[in-house]
Amino acid sequence: MPVTPEPISRSTPEADLESSVSWQTTLSLFLAAVLGAALALWILPHWLPALFSDIAAQKAYWHLARSSGIVAYLLLWVSTALGLLITNRMARAWPGGPTTFDLHQFASLLALGFTAFHAIILLGDEYIGYTFLQILIPFAATGYKPVATALGQIAFYLAAIISFSFYVRNRIGRRAWRTLHYASFLIFLLITVHGLFAGTDTATLWPLYLASAASILFLTLYRILITRIQKPHFTHTPKRSTR
User: Among 45, 141, 182, 231, which is 20 to 30 Å from 9 by CA?
Assistant: First the structure.
C-alpha cells in the first residue's frame, strides 16, 4: 500500500520531502529525449526526402532545436519558481507542499530532457555544422556564438547534477543538498543569457525572458523576506541575582 506523504509544515524544509519520481523514471525520460533526437536525425533525411527537396525545409533541424529550447527554458522557469514556492503558505494550501515538490522535480527533469533533445538535434543542422564533441564540450564550438553556446552547455551539466542529486540526498547530507541547490539561480541566469544571445528569436521573445527573469527575482526576494520574518528571534534575559 503506498504511503501518503506528510503535509508540509511551516518548519519542514524541502530537503526533508521525499520524491515520488523514481530514478528509473528519470533515466527513462532522459533516454527517451536522446533516442528521440537520434531517431529524428535518421528519419527526417531518409524517410522524408520530399521534405528536404525544398530549400526552406532544410531548416527543419533548426526549427526543432529552437522549439525544444524554448520549451526547456519554460520548464526550467516553472521548476525554479516552484522551488521558491515550496515553503510558501499558498503552496502549502494548494496544491500542497509534497505536490509542489514533485512538480518542481518533474519540471526540472522534463527541462533536462528537452535540453538534451535541443542540443543533439543540432547535429543535423548543416549550416552550424556541430560535431558530437562540440555538442558535449563547452567552448569547443567556435563557429556560432561560442560564448553564449558554452554558457548553455555549462548550465545543462549543472542542471543534470542538481536533477540527479535528488537520489543521493541521504548520502551527501541534507545540508549539502540544499547548498547544492543554490546553483539553480546560476543555472537560470546562464540559460537566460544563452537564450538572449544565442537564440535567433530574441527580438521576438525578449518579453518572455524579461518576464520570467523578473518573476524569479521577485520570488527570490519574497522568500528571503518571508524567511527573515518567520525566523525566530531569541533575546537573552539576564538572570536575577540571588543576593
Answer: 182
| Domain regions of the chain by residue span | 17-229
Burial class (CB in 10 A: 0-12, 13-18, 19+), 242: exposed
pLDDT for residue 31: 83
Tens digits of residue pLDDT in 192-227: 999 999 888 888 899 999 999 999 999 999 888 887
Whole-angstrom Cα distance, residue 242 to residue 18? 51
Which amino acid, residue 25? T
Model's pTM, two decimal places? 0.80
Q: How far apart are CA 162 and CA 132, in angstroms?
A: 24
> How many CB atoms lie under 10 A from the CB of residue 148?
16
